[in-house]
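User: I need a structural model of ABC transporter ATP-binding protein from Catenulispora pinistramenti for a docking pre-check later this week. Nothing fancy, just the predicted structure tokens so I can convert them on my end. Input:
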Amino acid sequence: MSAVKAAGVRVTLDRKSILRGVDLAVASGSWHAVLGPNGAGKSTLLKAIVGILPYQGEIQVGGEAVAKLAAKARARLIAYVPQQPQLPADMTVAEYVLLGRTPHLGYLGVESRTDRAVADGALERLDLAGFAGRRLGAMSGGERQRVVLARALAQQAGVLLLDEPTTALDLGHQQQVLDLVDELRSTEGLTVISTLHDLSLAAQYADDLTLLVDGAVVAHGTAREVLTEQRIAEHYGARVRVFDD
Ligand code: ADP
Ligand code: MG
Ligand code: MG
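Assistant: Understood. Predicted structure tokens for ABC transporter ATP-binding protein:
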């Protein structure tokens, strides 16, 4: 069953056609990578899916048309982590993760005991229990990415959208964060859709890939199907081999 389904999605910004009829079907519990050169429309597609950008066409998450849902109901279905989210330096890790309970408000609402328990569970899940009282300004890049994931997890949505989750990280931390996402996918049954600029990492982690170029899908399938040398040369203008054989 598809957790996320998009059909004929079009987005126009400043009278410029950014997405030109995108289709996407993401199986429940799978990891789907959206790839493509800079400016292809990857971030725009994620924003349309999470419902923060107006679009034409159809997008369904868990069988519901997200655009028609109120912010609170939408937040129960889908969690979105933008590329390099702004973290308020003075906020503590525990406060920030609690924000995942009230994403529709954009600020910390009156939290219940359940909210606290869920947020604590998310901290624990991401090995952050010892950091609860730490200010966000005092966290390293890898730690901040874990905090952001903990907040998304606290939201308890079934679908997680990650826009370039590894850009701010060094190589070791990139693997660590993606391993963690993969673990959450299998243990919590999350469906993951992420953009990833590193093609080898995408091949390593994603079950299915969509290659977006100039606002349109040019290929989708497994990494071996999508990431051929010829296609990479054509669309990235680079000679890269993702697979050795
Ligand atoms: P990607 O994430 O694949 O790098 P984006 O989705 O960020 O691409 O952007 C796709 C295209 O849309 C780019 O050409 C970008 O300049 C343009 N774009 C993005 N946001 C806006 C906006 N608010 N107004 C006009 N054009 C935009
Ligand atoms: Mg970009
Ligand atoms: Mg982008």
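Before docking, keep this in mind: Residues 171-188 form the longest helix (18 residues).
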